[in-house]
Design goal:
By secondary structure, the protein is an all-alpha fold. The protein is built from three helices and no strands.
């Protein structure tokens, strides 16, 4: 579990497809879906932690890009 694509593939195994239209929103919704899967007991703590780490990293990157884009306006 290293990339956002890996997280998407994991969610797909549970029938969860996320596309909101803006990458940062997709990441936030994936985080919510992962929380629900963990609470339902279908993800173990180790996998949950890995997935949340990937999502936090990707979210940070998207937020930085948004700030940079906004600074150039």
């Amino acid at each position: 579990m290293k990339t956002l694509y890996d997280v998407q593939q994991l969610l797909k195994k549970f029938g969860v497809y996320v596309y909101v239209g803006k990458r940062i929103w997709d990441i936030e919704l994936m985080a919510i879906e992962v929380d629900h899967l963990y609470q339902a007991g279908v993800l173990d703590a180790k996998m949950y932690a890995r997935v949340k780490l990937v999502l936090a990293h990707e979210h940070r990157i998207e937020a930085e890009h948004a700030r940079e884009d906004h600074a150039h306006d």
